[in-house]
Write a structure and sequence with these properties.
The complex is a heterotrimer of chains A (about 350), B (about 120) and C (about 180). Chain A has one domain. Chain A is mainly alpha-helical and about 350 residues long. Chain B has about 120 residues and is an all-alpha fold. The longest helix of chain B is centred in the first third of the chain and has 24 residues. The longest helix of chain C has 25 residues. Chain C folds into three domains: about 80 residues, NADH-ubiquinone/plastoquinone oxidoreductase chain 6, subunit NuoJ (Four Helix Bundle (Hemerythrin (Met), subunit A)), CATH 1.20.120; about 30 residues; about 50 residues. Classes of the chains: A mainly alpha (about 350), B mainly alpha (about 120), C mainly alpha (about 180). Chains in contact: A-B, A-C, B-C. The interface between A and B is large, with 82 and 70 residues.
Chain lengths: ~350, ~120, ~180
């Protein structure tokens, strides 16, 4: 690729990465205000109007605070474990399509960092690497609570990866491709003239299973036993302070954003709005691909924000699972159900389109 | 392979960001170690004994079973990719997968019946 | 050398360095971490040979499941920091990997072969993946089904070998 391509890719990468990194402080504010709303109390309202400057104040605090490092920790692994958590959270963004394409200086620029033909598999593979930050963090802290929390969290994450993968595979049956951009393009138009041709309309049950597995993958309530306060102090990040702790939190919120993005891409039509096709929108915007691209970007992130609010809402509404209940749910309920979903979809497809 | 080049770019940028965060805390944070801060945290109690004690083999079992079922789940992906195209030639792929799925489900039933995953 | 050959050379050196680091690391956990990096290098090599599917499977299974298993085992067996001593780590790694690389290049040249295989053409992305999937269910259907039986056998074997007996657990924990 020549220098212009390289420059455009660089700008694109920076734009998408910074957008997602910026959702972290916004999410922390939404989390605290949302929790306060549900719990009928004010929440942070001292720092700036409605407490909006709170995330910035927190960030400044995290940088300037002392980083307490206990004496018995295992050196290098203790230091890099939070970043081992952060790196996969950043890398997964590469395959997410936030829009169709822009036209810059006569070149078509895809609104995706990397247009991978194996996009879905890439996302599954890289999110399976998020376990290492937790495992090494828990072990390197040389603390009984951290170790147990790390091990439990890792077991939970690996147990729920299988239903996540199989539920996503159920959708691939319909799409016939692993390329995330083609998956979104497939979801344009209507089904039977009435319903939007989104994944959730084709496989509502599969979406539900994916949603549950997503909650467990990101260690969110009701699946956050490994990091709750009452059970294990703070689980695998007990011995981490200031910026390293903030890095773990950053990785968690970025994982949330990424998996919400995956749900929007696979099940909710990506950047499409229901019933109005892209060509019609293009005509409304006077044929300008760039304005359409911006609009698609806004639609995508609105849907992602809706899912993020759902995550916050569920967190403060339901009680958490016990660890053995969690495991039984994964192996005894979710895996058989996702397999059933796969078989039923395959049989239905055969009956409708076979021979 | 060319499609993955931006991933390398993203990796480089993410690594730079991580290095930046690490550098920021190292240079800007004060460093005042004290006996309380250096000790391991155990809700105020004095920790005793080595933290790394041997524990339940259930975790090992979970990890191995995950590996096996992950390999099986991976085989669904090529099947799902070509399933719709192959429907024109009959139910061959569907039957092949039903046989495969039968064995996967057998394994799952075995694991659940033998209570491999009961943790408490 | 084309960019592809640079990628193969670079990833090859990376894999070798990480593999040597795994062997000479002072603790099994650091060895497992080196193994993670090594498998990443192998995924990069698969990419250089135009097999993105294999590269992703390598990351998903090898790095995401096998090494996780190894780390679990290391933690279970409480192997701790391992025995120290020996030659300074980075020196060994550097010289060992450089030596292996040079020797293999010399050997290949002596055998009059190019050390760099050209990337296979026409096996790009999902095009190659679709062809592979079709092959899997037509020509290689029998091995595919046998594989599922084989995995079932492994599941049973795992249970038999690592059978969690209620009495033994209590006895092992109060050691």
């Amino acid at each position: 690729m020549d220098w212009l391509d390289l420059g455009l890719t660089f700008v694109k990468t920076l734009a998408i990465l910074l957008t997602v990194v910026n959702t972290v402080p916004i999410m922390s504010w939404v989390e605290r205000r949302g929790a306060a709303l549900i719990q009928d109390r004010p929440g942070p309202n001292r720092v700036g109007p409605l407490g909006l400057i709170q995330p910035i104040a927190d960030f400044v605090k995290f940088i300037w605070k002392e980083d307490p490092t206990p004496a018995n920790v295992s050196g290098v692994l203790y230091t890099i474990a939070p970043f081992l958590s952060l790196l996969p959270a950043c890398l997964v963004l590469a395959a997410l399509p936030v829009g169709d394409h822009l036209v810059v200086m006569g070149r078509e620029v895809r609104m995706q960092i990397a247009d991978l033909d194996v996009g879905l598999l890439y996302v599954l593979a890289i999110s399976s690497l998020g376990i290492y930050g937790i495992l090494f963090g828990g072990w390197a802290s040389n603390n009984k609570f951290s170790l147990l929390g790390g091990l439990r969290s890792a077991s939970q994450m690996i147990s729920y990866e299988i239903p996540l993968a199989i539920a996503a595979t159920g959708m691939v049956l319909f799409y016939g491709t692993l390329n995330l951009r083609e998956i979104v393009l497939w979801q344009e138009g209507t089904l039977l003239g009435v319903l939007p041709r989104w994944g959730v309309v084709l496989q509502p049950f599969g979406f539900l299973l994916f949603l549950i597995a997503a909650f467990a993958e990101t260690n969110r309530l009701p699946f956050d036993l490994p990091e709750t306060e009452a059970e294990l102090v703070a689980g695998y990040h007990t011995e981490y302070g200031s910026m390293k702790f903030a890095t773990f939190m950053m990785a968690e919120y970025m994982n949330l954003t990424t998996i919400s993005g995956m749900m929007v891409t696979l099940y909710f039509g990506g950047w499409h709005i229901p019933w109005i096709g892209d060509s019609q929108l293009l005509a409304w915007f006077g044929g300008s691909r760039n304005i359409l691209g911006l609009f698609q970007f806004v639609v995508f992130f609105t849907k992602v924000t809706a899912f993020l609010f759902l995550f916050v809402w569920v967190r403060w509404t339901v009680p958490r699972f016990r660890f053995d209940q969690l495991m039984r749910l994964a192996w005894g309920r979710l895996i058989p159900l996702t397999l059933l979903n796969l078989v039923v979809s395959a049989v239905v497809l055969y009956l409708v389109e076979g021979r | 392979m060319e499609a993955f080049a931006p991933v390398g770019l993203l990796l480089a940028i993410a690594l730079a960001m991580c290095a930046g965060i690490l550098g920021l805390t190292t240079w800007l944070g004060p460093r005042r170690p004290s006996a309380a801060k250096l000790s391991t945290y155990e809700c105020g109690a004095i920790p005793e004994g080595n933290a790394r004690q041997p524990f339940r083999s259930r975790f090992y079992l979970i990890a191995v079973l995950f590996l096996l079922f992950d390999v099986e789940a991976v085989f669904f992906i090529p099947w799902a990719l070509v399933y719709r195209e192959s429907l024109a030639e009959g139910a061959g792929l569907l039957l092949a997968m039903l046989v495969y799925l039968g064995f996967v489900v057998l394994g799952l039933i075995y694991v659940i019946r033998k209570k491999c995953l009961e943790l408490y | 050398m084309s960019p592809n050959e640079w990628m193969i050379a670079g990833m090859g050196i990376f894999v070798l360095v990480c593999a040597v680091a795994v062997i000479f690391s002072r603790s099994p956990i650091y060895g497992a971490f080196g193994l993670v990096l090594c498998f990443f290098g192998m995924a990069g090599l698969f990419l250089a040979w135009s097999s993105p599917f294999l590269a992703m499977i390598q990351v998903l299974i090898s790095t995401g499941a096998v090494v996780v298993l190894f780390v679990f085992v290391v933690m279970l067996l409480n192997l701790g920091h391992g025995s120290g001593g020996g030659v300074a780590g980075w020196v060994t790694v550097l010289f060992a990997s450089g030596g292996i690389w040079t020797l293999s290049l010399v050997l290949l040249r002596a055998l009059n072969r190019s050390p760099f295989y050209p990337a296979p053409s026409g096996a790009q992305g999902a095009g190659g993946l679709r062809a592979f999937s079709k092959l899997l269910f037509t020509d290689y259907l029998w091995p595919f089904e046998v594989l599922s039986v084989f995995l079932l056998a492994v599941v049973v074997a795992t249970y038999v070998v690592a059978r969690p007996e209620a009495g033994n657990v209590a006895r092992k924990e109060n050691r």
